[in-house]
Specification:
- The protein is mainly beta and 483 residues long.
- It has two helices and 34 strands.
- It is globular and about 80 Å long.
Length: 483
């Protein structure tokens, strides 16, 4: 087994203690002139707690957790840069380096998915000079958090330690031939800044694996199928066509032992090898060799995009016509299946058959048409035809200007008769309406067991909900924090 491990432990003040454990594979003879560098074919994967170093530290880290991780539904970041500094075929002595960029385009990664599955996502492949490297650089940007208590809103009030610019300044060696570079974020861990906003803590480490298989998830397109060998060739991207600007990695997938899932059949593997056809988009889970062969255990065939105009429209209600079961809205963002933003547009929304969700509703809608009034900000789900949306779901976000937030602070005063408390966060004060919120004790997981009696003056809490411009938060969840 050939493994080179190097790591960077991140702490709150964004200092890094850098360490390196390297087992060398032999050095060039040193007789001038040196031989030209050989090629190192590297597959780059990103995971969470997949390296032995991070697994060993996980138990210690867990003792210091705030318990917020239990509320996460997804945590997506954009990986916008991965680069390596090459020093040459001889052990480096402080001379100049050459930097190699490994990404052609940003790739969106759900870190929570990687953390819960234990898989690593294939990001890129590169042909680099074999030899010594002195640093690895990676840039994470645009973190987006979705919480189980509020699945329809994305929390953007979130930052990453060191502004997401992480560097491992340690010497490591890429061997000649095939290898896998495993980048590991060290699990999902949070702290808070002085404004009560969440900070994602990343303990970056890496391993160069020369002859071991790695558990991976790869997405891409089938290029050729060989039924007699029970294999297919695929062009693998970061995540389907969402990252199609990224140069693909060519892989061979052995599917003989794999469960095959058809589109919209996520619970039962009803597919057969005949469903694996050229041009199909697939997500493959399995073990990957450094040579680029994946022994698949699970293959999911992606649904073929249709031409229906399903939309998510976010905007403000301008007028309501209860006799017609519709309202007019100014939609300032409109999301289609393929993503993207459009200019503000006037829409007519038919809500007669729609489920109506209040700001504090979770999975069960409790709203009625009486809750739809002018001036409210809403998110509408439905099908669009010539300016009219036939809605199947309307989620009320709050008064115009409301935004999803999470704030950590201290309770200053509690008004049990009014179902509200005052929250102090740094230099800011908020009024929190908790009447419809789930109250989570520090030991609670997905299910809240707390009551309003647990909301005591001086308690440290995390509040999740919708905030108005005048600092009133309608809470969907209140989490009591461990000290």
């Amino acid at each position: 087994m050939s493994v080179f491990r190097f790591s960077s432990d991140t702490i709150l003040i964004c200092l890094f203690a850098l360490s390196l454990g390297v087992t060398t594979m032999g050095c060039p003879g040193g007789t001038p002139p040196p031989d030209p560098p050989k090629n190192a074919n590297v597959s780059v994967v990103l995971g969470s707690n997949v390296t032995s170093a991070n697994k060993a530290a996980l138990e210690t880290q867990a003792q210091e957790e705030w318990g917020i991780e239990d509320l996460v539904a997804s945590l997506t970041v954009s990986v916008t840069q991965i680069s390596l500094d090459y020093a040459g075929t001889e052990p480096p002595s402080g001379g100049p380096v050459e930097t190699f960029e490994l990404l052609d385009a940003p790739i969106d990664v759900d870190l929570f998915h990687l953390d819960t599955t234990g898989l690593s996502l294939l990001l890129a492949g590169a042909e680099l000079p074999a030899g010594y490297y002195t640093a690895l650089h990676i840039l994470f940007e645009n973190p987006r958090l979705v919480l189980q208590t509020d699945p329809d809103n994305v929390v953007l009030d979130l930052s990453i330690t060191a502004q997401g610019e992480l560097t491992i300044d340690s010497v490591f060696q890429l061997p000649e031939g095939d290898s896998i570079l495993v980048l590991d974020i060290g699990g999902i861990h949070f702290s808070f800044d002085s404004n009560g906003a969440l900070v994602l803590i990343i303990n970056l480490s890496a391993e160069v694996v020369g002859d071991d298989d790695t558990e991976v998830e790869v997405c891409g397109v089938i290029d050729a199928v060989h039924p007699d060998l029970e294999t297919f060739e695929m062009s693998a991207y970061g995540d389907f066509d969402k990252n199609s600007n990224q140069e693909p990695v060519n892989l061979v997938v052995e599917y003989g032992d794999a469960e095959i899932y058809l589109p919209n059949k996520c619970d039962t593997p009803t597919g057969t090898p005949e469903d694996l056809v050229v041009g199909a988009n697939v997500k493959v889970e399995g073990t990957m060799t450094p040579e680029g062969t994946v022994h698949a255990t699970k293959i999911m065939i992606k649904e073929v995009e249709d031409d229906t105009d399903e939309v998510k429209a976010l905007g403000v209600i301008d007028a309501v016509h209860p006799d017609l079961d519709n309202f007019e809205m100014s939609a300032y963002v409109e999301y289609t299946k393929n993503g993207g933003e459009q200019d503000p547009v006037d829409l007519l929304v038919q809500y007669g058959d729609a489920d109506i969700y209040l700001p504090t509703d979770g999975d069960t809608p409790t709203g009625t048409e009486a809750d739809l009034v002018a001036g409210l900000e809403v998110k509408v789900y439905g099908t669009l035809t010539e300016g009219t949306v036939v809605a199947y779901k309307v989620r009320i976000r709050g008064p115009e200007g409301s935004e999803p937030v999470q704030k950590a602070g201290e309770i200053d005063a509690v008004h049990l008769d009014l179902d509200k408390f005052e929250l102090s966060v740094g230099d800011h004060d908020y009024l929190v309406l908790y009447g419809s919120a789930g109250i989570y004790l520090p030991t609670d997981g997905d299910t809240p067991t707390g009551t309003e009696a647990d909301l005591a003056v001086g308690a440290e809490v995390l509040v999740i909900g919708m905030k108005t411009p005048d600092h009133v938060i309608t809470a969907s969840a209140v989490k009591l924090l461990n000290p």
